[in-house]
Write a structure and sequence with these properties.
This protein is mainly α. It has 16 helices and no strands. The protein has helices at about 20-30, 30-40, 55-65, 70-80, 85-90, 110-125, 130-135, 140-175, 185-210, 215-235, 240-270, 270-290, 295-335, 340-360, 365-385, 385-430. Helix 8 runs antiparallel to helix 9, helix 9 (about 185-210) packs antiparallel against helix 10 and helix 12 packs antiparallel against helix 13 (about 295-335). The longest helix has about 45 residues, at about 385-430. It is flat and about 75 Å long.
Length: about 425
């Protein structure tokens, strides 16, 4: 059964079924054709997990789901096999345009509106003059799509590191019970396959990511962690166990913050204002050619949403960098407290204005509490009582850490939202002869 939607790239009001996508790949693509499909999707076929054609196809579906490229994969299948219709790939349920792995309630309103504007543009691309107007901004569309994909890669790696860190904590806590409590080996043995699984997920994700070549050093170290941990568990070898957890701690301590910094850098380079300007210019040309008020309204809403998203990204990157600067300085000072309060007293001349810039003009609960602890710490430093200074420094440090983590979480959440825009842009760029 086939169908003829307005655009071969858009499923319309159909929810695509991952199982049907997998079956289409298995039944309609041989190994060489599957390799070609991966090439067109900028995915290295060889980097998919080892296995036969069915296993590779399943890995490709899973990859597209994790990276919010499911509709892109479905569109690529339809482009390669026009006889396959959207109805052949649809689930029994219908829903928001091509929704598969993300519920509409999980998507920010601005992001959804921005995505719909690009989708409207895709629908209009067959009309005379629209393709030429959009093609003038292909470089802007590509840049935004590439940057969003890069941010998504960083977020995925960041999340996997966090999951691995949680597993490390469980094993490390059990390790501290050894050798006095031999039953700790039972818990460690249960956790070891979970650690191995998280490391495997990380290694696979990095291999498929756009920055894979930069990460060769720590991926080799993670393989060493797996080897030493397995040796420790199989032989009840505490030295091997400690070797693996020490190395894992060093990797986690360095790489989580490093990946986070790279994600923030990628977000800072996103330049959604360029995308907003491109859509505005295209909208103006569409208005002159009378392409329908409904379509123009949809694109105008998208322009406004992109403007709002650009403000959110800019503000979050700025706030994240400011909190990172304060956090780095506090970490440095924290390491000197056992030698006395002199370094903290000297550093406070810099720390106080850094903190003030973060809470000035803020009225939220976190800001009110942060102002109070800043005032208390400042008074303690003036009074000169070490035990009081330490108490309020710890409170200051704790509140700073909580707020920094919230800003970090907000940025990661925005990256996840932007995947919706990234997928729409990728579908737009898939149009043939869009040059």
């Amino acid at each position: 059964m086939t169908d003829s939607p307005d655009s071969p790239l858009l499923p319309g009001d159909k929810e695509i079924d991952p199982k049907k996508i997998l079956q289409a790949l298995i039944h309609h693509f041989d190994a060489d054709e599957l390799r070609t499909l991966c090439f067109h999707l900028d995915i290295q076929y060889e980097d998919l997990p080892p296995g036969g054609r069915s296993s590779k196809a399943r890995s490709l579906v899973e990859y597209s789901q994790r990276h919010h490229r499911f509709n892109v994969l479905a569109a690529a299948i339809r482009e390669a096999r026009p006889a396959i219709g959207w109805n052949d790939l649809a689930s029994a349920k219908t829903g928001q345009e091509g929704k598969t792995t993300t519920d509409i309630s999980d998507i920010g309103t601005e992001t959804l509106i921005a995505s719909r504007g690009v989708t409207t543009l895709i629908k209009l691309m067959g009309a005379p003059g629209v393709r030429e107007a959009a093609a003038n901004f292909r470089a802007d569309f590509e840049a935004a799509s590439t940057q969003i994909a890069l941010m998504n890669d960083y977020k995925l790696i960041h999340d996997l590191f966090q999951e691995l860190e949680n597993r490390y904590t469980l094993i490390h806590n059990d390790q501290k019970r050894l050798p006095a409590d031999e039953t700790a080996w039972d818990s460690i043995e249960l956790n070891e396959p979970e650690v191995k699984g998280k490391i495997d997920d990380l290694l696979q994700a990095v291999q498929l990511a756009s920055f894979a070549n930069e990460e060769a050093h720590w991926t080799v170290q993670l393989e060493k962690v797996q080897e030493d941990l397995r040796t420790g568990v199989e032989n009840f070898d505490l030295a091997a166990l400690k070797s693996s957890t020490r190395l894992l701690f060093r990797i986690l301590n360095r790489q989580i913050s490093r990946i986070n910094a790279q994600l923030v850098g990628a977000a800072g380079a996103l330049r959604l204002d360029n995308l907003e300007n491109a859509m505005s210019t295209i909208s103006d040309s569409l208005g002159q050619a009378n392409f329908g008020q409904e379509n123009l309204n949809e694109i105008q809403k998208s322009i406004n949403a992109l403007s709002g998203l650009n403000v959110r990204v800019t503000d979050l990157v700025r706030d994240h960098n400011a909190w990172q600067e304060l956090d780095d300085e506090l970490r440095r000072v924290e390491g000197t407290l056992n030698q006395g309060m002199d370094e903290l007293k000297d550093a406070w001349y810099d720390l106080a204005p850094m903190a003030r810039r973060l809470y000035d003009g803020q009225t939220d609960t976190w800001a009110v509490s942060f102002i109070q602890v800043c005032t208390s710490l400042n008074q303690a430093l003036e009074d000169g009582t070490d035990i009081t200074i330490k108490r309020f420094f710890r409170r200051f440090r704790s509140q700073e850490g909580r707020r920094f983590r919230q800003v970090d979480f907000d940025l990661l959440s925005l990256v996840q939202e932007l995947q919706e825009v990234g997928e729409s842009l990728e579908l737009l760029l898939m149009l043939r002869n869009f040059k």
